[in-house]
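Two proteins were folded this term; both appear here.
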Amino acid sequence: MPLTRRQKEVLDFIGNFIDENGYSPSFEEVASGLGLASLATVHKHIRTLEAKNYLRRGHNQSRSLEVTPKFFQEQRRYREETSPAAGIPLVGRIAAGAPVEAVAGRETLNFSDFLGSGESYALEVRGDSMIEDHICDGDLVLVERTAEVKDGEIVVALVRGSETTLKRFYREPGDVARLQPANAGMAPIFVPLSDLRIQGRVLAVLRKYR
């Protein structure tokens, strides 16, 4: 039988009190902590929680309440059900100016609501070459790992095997790619397609305001 809202509040209060203090609360402390006017109401909830196998208590003993393994199992299940669905590796930083060497990292971001159909990861932007597309220095971009992109998409491009940059991608005549910044003060980068590897397309941008 599921717990009522008040039964869960009583159980959570007792579990948190034991965790913080190392001993169980008195009935008076439960009543005071939850704003209950009657000790009889506390007794009733505790008897119900005992019957549902969430609590144990020693009879005729003070501060003898003990939460059962069932309580911890349900807490763990709740955390698993409400935790983000996917962890996205924050693999490094990427230039939004001149290309720079990409550096791998170990941090993780949770962006399950923005995921594409394939593998995704995050990068921190450095530079302002994409500022007119509202991608600024310090922003985080969520990237879908793919080598197949359309003209005009914002991509992560590996140039000549060692430098990565964030730009809009366009195919030009003569098997050349144009990596177009979104900044009127910067010139595009022209690269032979043979010297270019597309590592992904941008799905979303996250900005933190301090």
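Next, the second protein.
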Amino acid sequence: MGRSRGGLTTKIHALVNENGLPLRFLLTPGEAHDAPPCRILLDAVQPNQRVLADRAYDADWIRQMIWERGAVAVIPSKKNRKLPKEFDAETYKQRNLVERFFGRIKRSYRRIATRYEKTSRNFLAMIKLAAFRLWCEFYESAT
């Protein structure tokens, strides 16, 4: 999809719930910045939810968008921010849920980790299949 120094690359942007299960996905070219796709991902945020994100999402417009939806932003400030914003470091530790989600789909589906699919449509379809499998495993173990 996108070209970087390493060749063709694609970034997967994901929104996961408190169990680490995926809710929404977006694909962008590898050279694109992380922040712009969050407009679409954060449309699903409900009041009183906490939005955990890494430093790449530390922008005033993102924090404003989260606040307008009645949610709480738990985002550490970038190193170059003149007035660092406070955040709940204990809550931020739960951000590893999204990292574990990416680890699970890459471990379970080698074709996602190595990007076998030539088109973004097929790549997104494989990601959705992996996500469906995670949801099924979660509900199967819960019953």
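The mean pLDDT is 85. Residues 70 and 79 are 26 Å apart (CA to CA). These notes refer to the second protein only.
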